[in-house]
Structure to design on (902 residues):
């Protein structure tokens, strides 16, 4: 039997609790710390974006033996529902027949994951604030306040699963030669809600991811099991339409009425939530290294926070755990090797999904209403359907596969180059579905394959 | 008379003491804090690189009325002295007749600047550690240790001049939407020393900046007033020749003998210093914003640390002070406006000098020995001499002008594009000084000007 380690995890979010579950199943002693109260006992924060669980997330849950449990909490979304101003809603399938992403409420999933980890024997210590970490000794220091009395804990390993503003990473950052960046975009977000109909049914198609792209800003809505939708308004902090300018109820009502006429019955709900819920910022965090010898490792957002526009934040974090546990399987308790291979394998993929998520931010907010962009997508789609083995769209590579994100980025760049060239063909708008265009793409693919 | 403010500066380095001097001259009360001891009373740290004072630095000193005092500490360097393996030393003039950069020992200059600021009435509080800053109230908290008793100070304004690992910035970084990055290069450095001859004269040409470019690594030497040279060895942390591999005296001696044969008499000095002095890392720090309302501002490395390969770190910091004080002149005590304009003006220039410094790292270490690079430089030089109004080299724009760094970067990119095109002309090695090439550059310049 494997020698059992005494392991701390800082952070009881999704990634922390999945890791706790896995490590318990491997026979380790696991203590999970969180500065916040138990999410099972309090109202969730009102700053959440619904999760879009996709292939990588399911794979990690399957490996932890809890896929079926979680499936019960999820609603499959087979398509985007595009609410473009003054057009009827139209739908874009995400993938092939049966391929879907799954909407899950963050609060609901988090509570379930903690339940599962606790049932497996992990100890959860809520409202216990970690203030300092001794990296080389794997010690944690907790207490009421940063300047007050601290309690010292001794562990064999510590995982930082404490999110984009990780305290564990903060300590690693003080070492020399630790690369780090945090970059905020100029757009923030706000959680809003569309309640269920009186009979508990959904007010919009429940198997779609709803998008209202409006150039500088965007509203999205994802279904919940109780018939409601969790909406997220992405809006600039400053500018004509922004969190800075929409400060009165009248202004908010006018904003919702002007830009989201097809849900005008929800205006009072949206307006109420607009002023009740906090405005949150969106950050990309990159750092390296992610580990410290055989003592410390960062996982999930603590290592690689991304903007949410590819719906991959949680999936990428779950994939960290998947990779880590596979390495644990291979290298048993040789944690120095595990951590080394973990960061080498994950870092390029984390950078790739950060880049892809940022690009999707540009695409979803501003381009989804641009006719040239739509034409481009139409050409790609037609070609991909006819030559599925030659053209797997980036979205599918990211969402419906478990091949490395870095490969998806590389292929995406290659495809983008080809499409740039195709879109510059004279008269492309007219001849977009001609054999000439198809042949052109085939020959460009050939060229790029031979390079 | 202008209303006097009670101002704190954190950091008694070059930029902090220049700012203290300036603010005293403007009638403010100034207290300068440093966690380290008074540099006038202790041996300097042995991790210094000699300063190359150039136009921007001198301008700031002139505005503070101390240019002449500092000139006495400086040795003009008119040229690079290139020590290329197995060739005799050759020289490259820096600029036009009389243009020079000035070698100054960091310790010597820092002591002088503190003397000057103190004489002007600034209060210096050494060995007093700042642990926390209240941004909105402009309060400082100091004490023996982070967890111990703290003393509270109340100010009107606080400047963070506390370097690349600034504590003041650290506090600003905790705000939402604060962009930050720290990026270390894989090369570190070590201070070494070549002592004077017995008669006090210099062992190498004293009016040159000496460079031994060796591909992956590089040695430089800059003269001091006492006849010695401060040398800096830039060497990778890992790899064949690296701080990781050179760990014995024998290995160091062999390294110096193999690669720096023309200073083989210095081997024992170099070897002694190699093991006595610390190895330091090199970091680029970027952040934004630099200011907090009318309360807090970052200056110098705290706002924009750059790698030292353009010799502009201190010059850029001094230029911050120059710009700040000019804005103070214009806007009197409207510090909110001063800070806003200061960061808007300086940020693009700080980003530009970071980029230019990083590029020079690539250029100085690996390319200065490459024949193609030397040919390229030769063509540029010839053209610049013939058409001085049409082609001011980037080095001159950065070093011998006070036009914005961002313009130098832009012009540099344009020139690089032209030179890429020129270098790809067939037979360029033979016809490099032909009229054809000259005409080609002229027409490319014309084109780029019309774009």
């Amino acid at each position: 039997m494997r020698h059992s380690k005494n392991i701390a995890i800082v952070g009881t979010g999704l990634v922390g609790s999945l890791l706790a579950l896995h490590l318990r199943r491997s026979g380790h002693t696991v203590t999970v710390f969180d500065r916040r109260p138990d999410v099972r006992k309090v109202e969730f924060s009102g700053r959440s974006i619904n999760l879009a669980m996709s292939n990588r997330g399911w794979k990690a849950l399957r490996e932890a033996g809890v896929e079926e449990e979680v499936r019960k909490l999820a609603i499959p979304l087979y398509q985007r529902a595009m609410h473009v101003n003054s057009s009827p809603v139209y739908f874009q399938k995400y993938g092939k027949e049966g391929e879907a992403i799954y909407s899950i409420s963050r609060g609901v999933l988090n509570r379930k994951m903690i339940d599962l980890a606790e049932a497996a024997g992990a100890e959860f210590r809520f409202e216990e604030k970690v203030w300092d970490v001794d990296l080389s000794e794997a010690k944690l220091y907790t207490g009421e306040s940063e300047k007050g009395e601290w309690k010292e804990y001794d562990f064999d390993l510590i995982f930082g699963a404490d999110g984009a503003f990780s305290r564990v990473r903060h300590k690693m950052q003080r070492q020399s030669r630790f690369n780090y960046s945090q970059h905020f975009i100029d757009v923030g977000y706000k959680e809003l809600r569309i309640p269920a109909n009186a009979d508990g049914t959904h007010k919009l198609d429940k198997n779609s991811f709803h998008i209202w792209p409006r150039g500088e800003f965007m509203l999205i809505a994802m279904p919940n099991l109780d018939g409601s939708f969790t909406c997220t308004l992405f809006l600039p902090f400053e500018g004509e339409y922004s969190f800075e300018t929409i400060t009165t109820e009248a202004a908010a009502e006018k904003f919702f009425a002007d830009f989201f006429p097809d849900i005008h019955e929800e205006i009072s709900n949206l307006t109420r939530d607009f002023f009740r819920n906090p405005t949150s910022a969106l950050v990309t965090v990159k750092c390296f290294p992610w580990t410290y010898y055989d003592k410390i490792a960062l996982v999930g957002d603590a290592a690689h926070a991304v903007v949410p526009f590819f719906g991959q934040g949680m999936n990428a974090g779950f994939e960290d755990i998947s990779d880590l546990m596979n390495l644990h399987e291979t290298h048993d308790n040789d944690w120095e090797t595990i951590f080394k291979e973990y960061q080498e394998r994950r870092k390029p993929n984390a950078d790739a999904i950060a880049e892809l998520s940022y690009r999707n931010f540009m695409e979803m907010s501003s381009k989804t209403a641009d006719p040239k962009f739509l034409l481009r997508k139409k050409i790609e789609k037609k070609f991909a359907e006819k030559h599925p083995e030659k053209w797997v769209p980036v979205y599918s590579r990211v969402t419906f596969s478990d091949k490395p994100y870095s490969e998806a980025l590389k292929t995406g760049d290659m495809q983008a180059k080809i499409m740039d060239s195709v879109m510059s063909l004279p008269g492309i708008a007219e001849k977009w579905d001609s054999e000439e265009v198809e042949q052109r793409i085939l020959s460009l693919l050939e060229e790029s394959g031979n390079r």
User: Anything to note?
Assistant: Chain A touches chain B at residues 147, 173, 176-184, 237, 281 (CB under 8 Å). Chain A has a mean pLDDT of 94. The first helix of chain A runs from residue 14 to 25. Chain A has three domains: 6-45+106-180+285-360, 187-276, 370-450.
